[in-house]
TrEMBL record:
<dbReference type="GO" id="GO:0003682">
    <property type="term" value="F:chromatin binding"/>
</dbReference>
<keyword id="KW-0540">Nuclease</keyword>
<dbReference type="InterPro" id="IPR045249">
    <property type="entry name" value="HARBI1-like"/>
</dbReference>
<dbReference type="GO" id="GO:0035098">
    <property type="term" value="C:ESC/E(Z) complex"/>
</dbReference>
<dbReference type="GO" id="GO:0035102">
    <property type="term" value="C:PRC1 complex"/>
</dbReference>
<feature type="compositionally biased region" description="Basic residues">
    <location>
        <begin position="1"/>
        <end position="14"/>
    </location>
</feature>
<dbReference type="GO" id="GO:0016787">
    <property type="term" value="F:hydrolase activity"/>
</dbReference>
<dbReference type="Pfam" id="PF13359">
    <property type="entry name" value="DDE_Tnp_4"/>
</dbReference>
<keyword id="KW-0479">Metal-binding</keyword>
<protein>
    <recommendedName>
        <fullName>DDE Tnp4 domain-containing protein</fullName>
    </recommendedName>
</protein>
<dbReference type="InterPro" id="IPR027806">
    <property type="entry name" value="HARBI1_dom"/>
</dbReference>
<dbReference type="GO" id="GO:0046872">
    <property type="term" value="F:metal ion binding"/>
</dbReference>
<feature type="domain" description="DDE Tnp4">
    <location>
        <begin position="184"/>
        <end position="349"/>
    </location>
</feature>
<dbReference type="GO" id="GO:0004518">
    <property type="term" value="F:nuclease activity"/>
</dbReference>
<keyword id="KW-0378">Hydrolase</keyword>
<feature type="region of interest" description="Disordered">
    <location>
        <begin position="1"/>
        <end position="20"/>
    </location>
</feature>
<comment type="similarity">
    <text>Belongs to the HARBI1 family.</text>
</comment>
Length: 397
């Protein structure tokens, strides 16, 4: 489990406390905050000094600077270190010696990996900031990903019924939709491929080579189901049907919680919401289409949109936090890329589970999939249409 967040005393905010102040570090290391005394912080101040030597900038506040580089507070960073510590100590990759001739600490290894994922910068530039070589960055990052993939899976699971009831209550309080369990959306992870691997299978509608990530998020924009590894050339609806989530729902083993009964005795089962890229199904509610919608239909669309926007917002936050997913990936191993994507989703969830806060400018300012036109799926399941009408009637009471 994630560490329990300690309560903090309120602080008086200055007029520009919400602004991100950028300064260049120079000279000696800044004073060590009391909460960091006794911890392994040498790597951190060495990193700051090297960052300054490169002529780059960072926030002046110690805590904000740490979040700026690694997306988490030091407390959450230490929790992540605790997840992978055993693996990084017992089975370290070969050659993890820095230029001073000392074995890299677990904290420094985690910092290297998280900086690579957070910035999306080249292995050479990340290595320069930490005083290590490109091969070390490569080894450290992949070992971190392997360990997180194995040991942090509990941060991305389908909710149990007790938690699901909380999610449904929050969705109804925020959007008015009853029995809603989540929002679905998908995004393209763009990459370059060698000529021998390039094929139309990986060429998407925007003429990029890409891999899909489909995510379902809860009321807090936490990923509760993902599927990745499929080519970006697929339709959204096709990707959905290839997912394990679809197979579970189709078999009645997911979204199978308590059914609500409306005043007209119509049944409202558990469902998720998505845009018109997806089919209308008994467990997936999409908006009404057409120019002359009735007032109840328009009301449903407005409430459905309020709920489904959590999907694209979560993906914008994911790709904004872990910029390796937002930059064009240079010839990635397509067998390893799904693991990188999964670990970025795990880190996204850990930040939420630890009640951590991102810097305000991390989320992408634009849509997570700029340059892609919205698809339309014409598939309408008759039972899905009936349930959407039942929900629409329920919202009028």
């Amino acid at each position: 489990m994630a560490p329990v967040k300690k309560s903090k005393k309120g602080k008086r905010k200055s007029k520009d406390s919400g602004k991100l102040k950028i300064v260049k570090y120079g000279g000696g290391a800044p004073p060590l905050p009391p909460e960091l005394r006794g911890l392994d912080t040498e790597w951190w101040y060495t990193f700051l000094h090297k960052h300054s030597e490169l002529g780059l900038s960072a926030p002046s506040d110690e805590g904000e600077a740490f979040r700026y580089f690694f997306r988490t507070s030091r407390r959450t960073f230490d929790y992540i270190c605790s997840i992978v510590r055993e693996d990084l100590i017992s089975r370290p990759p070969s050659g993890l010696i820095n230029i001073e001739g000392r074995l890299l600490s677990v904290e420094k290894q985690v910092a290297i990996a998280m900086r690579r994922l957070a910035s999306g910068d080249s292995q050479v530039s990340v290595g320069a900031a930490f005083g290590v070589g490109q091969s070390t960055v490569s080894q450290v990052t992949w070992r971190f990903i392997e360990s997180m993939e194995e040991r942090a899976r509990h941060h991305l699971v389908w909710p149990g019924q007790e938690r699901m009831e909380q999610i449904k209550a929050r969705f109804e309080a925020e959007s008015g939709l009853p029995n809603c369990c989540g929002a679905i959306d998908a995004t393209h992870i763009i990459m370059t491929l060698p000529a021998v691997e390039s094929s139309e299978d990986w060429c998407d509608p925007a003429k990029n080579y890409s891999m899909f990530l489909q995510g379902i998020v809860d009321d807090e924009m936490r990923f509760i189901d993902i599927v990745t590894g499929w080519p970006g050339s697929m339709m959204f609806s096709r990707l959905l049907k290839c997912s394990g989530f679809f197979k579970h729902c189709d078999a009645g083993t997911r979204l199978d919680g308590p059914v609500m009964v409306s005043a007209e005795n119509g049944e409202i089962r558990e469902y998720i919401v998505g845009n018109n890229c997806y089919p209308l199904l008994p467990w997936l509610m999409t908006p009404y289409e057409g120019e002359s919608l009735s007032a109840p239909m328009a009301s449903f669309n407005a409430r459905q949109k309020a709920a489904r926007t959590l999907g694209p917002r979560a993906l914008s936050r994911l790709k904004g936090s872990w910029r390796i997913l937002n930059k064009v990936m240079w010839r990635p191993d397509k067998n390893k890329l799904p693991s990188i994507i999964l670990v970025c989703c795990l880190l996204h969830n850990i930040i939420i589970d630890c009640e951590d806060e991102l810097l305000p400018d991390v989320q992408l300012p634009d849509h997570h999939d700029t340059g892609y036109s919205e698809e339309k799926c014409e598939q309408v399941d008759p039972n899905g249409k009936i349930m959407r009408d039942v929900i629409t009637g329920y919202l009028q009471i």
